[in-house]
Amino acid sequence: MxxxxxxxxxxxxxxxxxxxxxxERLLVHAGHVGVHTPGVSFDIQMVPGFRNxxxxxxxxxxxxxxxPGEVFLQSMPIMNLAEALAHYLPNGDREGGxxxxxxxxxxxxxxxxxxxxxxxxx
Length: 122
Hints:
Layout: E1 15-20, E2 25-28, E3 33-36, E4 41-46, H1 50-55, E5 61-66, E6 69-74, H2 78-86, H3 101-119
């Protein structure tokens, strides 16, 4: 990071460091991209194929990172963390529920808190 000010960086789960050679390309789920050096080209691309559209569990889009440069990936993006924690929260009329709709509500709450903090809202 360069420039004036303070940077707060939060990468969750395991952090994977990868050094990309010139022209080397890495395709990953966009939520797993933590940070990368300025030499790395970042783009979003659609995953081709009819089967991916029907059965793709990770979605239809991937981040394409092309070297040269360094990339730091995270194994547990904030939404995945919220969903994992939601399984241990009370769910309706029983304790320690199985998540379900609670996971989405926790994830939305976490995301809302982050966006509110970024946008300067309480």
